[in-house]
Amino acid sequence: MRKYLIAGNWKMNKTVSEAVSFMKILKGAIANTASVEVLLFPTFTALYAVNNEIKGSDINIGAQDVFWGEKGAFTGEISPAMIKDTGCSYVLIGHSERRQYFGETSEMVNKKTKAVIAAGLKPMVCIGETFQDRENNSTFKIIEKQINESLVGLTAEQACSVVIAYEPVWAIGTGKIASPDQAQEVHVFVRKIYSQMYKDASEKIRILYGGSVNPDNISNLMANPDIDGVLVGGASLDTESFAKLIKHFNN
Ligand code: PEP
To answer: What pTM was estimated for this model as a whole?
Structure first.
């Protein structure tokens, strides 16, 4: 049985004190989270303080990026061990904004994924087609390429620890959510590719949908059997809307 996962990607938002007060409020607003794992990706600068605030709660945290090296002359970079040291259990890897604005390739995503697993952290690997890919009927080709290149060389056991976030680029921050059928179709396809690479791991991995999810549209989306949760950007910045999204899983 795959446990649902709801994750919030804060991107470049919130100061340390804003992040800590969010957690203080969220802790009080969510009662029973037994049926869903709750995860937030604050900025690097807030991780340590946020971790102190969430101790003893059911909230997990992750970093929004990582470098694959262990240590040394890599100015500005953060290693998996440093991230683990702040209390994180997850790392978001290959978000489309990183691919688009910072030149992140699937080869880099692969190196990051392996380094994160080696450090005992769980990678959440983002994949997704652009609007143009969808218009050209290349969605499946793009998804297959991204999975093959991003996840090549893992053992079956390592492959099980990966969370995939399917985020159509045209749906991120646009208010245009993929239809439940569009999302389900890609999630089934991801499992198929995964089973070719890692056999049984395909039934164990969690595949989240991300792109303009909010409290009003989550129910339709989550009615699909292959959608194991959501990765939320904008609607995760506000405690009220994020708590409502979590509540969906507890009803
Ligand atoms: C995201 O950035 O991962 C995301 C899903 O953003 P939004 O929910 O704002 O579309």
So the answer is: 0.97
